[in-house]
Amino acid sequence: MPTDGKKASNAELSPETLTAQALGWIDEATGAIIPPIHTSTTYERGGDLEYPRGYSYSRSSNPTHAQLEAVLARLEGGADAIVVGAGMSAVALTVTSLSQGDHLLVQRKLYWGVRKWLDDFAGRFGLALEYVDTGDLDAVRRAVRPGETRLIWAESPANPTWEVADIAALAEIAHGAGARLAVDSTAATPVLSRPIEYGADLVMHAGTKYLNGHGDVLAGVLVTAREDDWWARIKAGRQDLGTVLAPMEAWLFLRGLRTVHLRVRQASENALAVAKALEDHPKVSHVLYPGLESHPDHALAHRQMSGGFGGMISIRLASGRDAAVRTAAALKVFKRATSFGGVESLVEHRASIEGAGTPVPDDLLRLSMGIEDAGDLIRDLERALEEV
Ligand SMILES: Cc1ncc(COP(=O)(O)O)c(C=O)c1O
Predict the structure, then answer these.
(1) Cα(302) to centroid(ligand 1), Å
(2) Which of 35, 93, 200, 369 could form a disulfide with 271 if both were Cys (CB 3.0 to 4.6 A apart)?
(3) Model-level pTM?
(4) 335 catalytic, yes or no?
């Protein structure tokens, strides 16, 4: 926690207010409402060799991080949070907190980068890695090994097919076997879903996406339900490996985060409007969006997500891969680029990014909804589909 800021009495305030005001911190030295960027890597020690203000060296902690982390912990309803240099660093810190021989049970459908890294790393690190279809809770029950499974890793909604994981059920299974549940909640954001409320032990975000929301910061976030030994090991990992977020990035991240409620709600509204507009389109065979009543996870999404279903949609083209690639090429308002969660809408042909062996169908286009006018986005898609 920053020692140079003043916290308003804010227990009763809503998340929207707390986030817009970054918990109401005011810089004590100057009265500034927008926090300074603390670039110093080192902090003055007292004559007694103590650090009277709580900071020593910025690989351990930094006031610019501390303010951001306090907001993130509050938004997720967690006990503590850390920010790191990328979403992948947050994944890596979590996985490397395990020990040789531990069983790690991972959702089969999830962000490709995580699967690619785990496939390479887990064996070399001596972890027993196993994938499971988290949509089939009986399969999860069969796969957990009491006393051996240390962690279940889920992602909800899952990139890029947007299945929703039943967090409460997974937490119950994990805890029954003496394991913990970590949830990559990047696509949901705490605006729509707070996994700790459903029993998750750890929440992870690629802050690169919606939380920062402006496509100009690479960052990762971990939020813990409780400050226990496991959390201490994860935090020590950040310090020891130096996977810290630079102060300038942390400052930009906090600036972006202040508007997360507005952005995520607008993106969710746009996504629902686009999903409905394309649901019966003759050139689209599937619209993958949990906000649609026809989606198999709709009832679960309704229960677990509040205020919207997220800004991410995938569509599958009835005529296959070439139609998908040509549709992406014909779009004008949507930009062809990877990543998601920014204010501008993006389109991506995922299979060609993920390469050979990907489970993602090659007729699939991933759409990241920005905050533009929904009519412009729908017209762009309809025109592009008309042309192919
Ligand atoms: C769901 C999900 N988790 C984690 C990551 C990794 O985040 P980063 O690119 O910030 O390392 C991504 C990146 O696309 C993602 O989509």
Answers:
(1) 24
(2) 369
(3) 0.97
(4) no
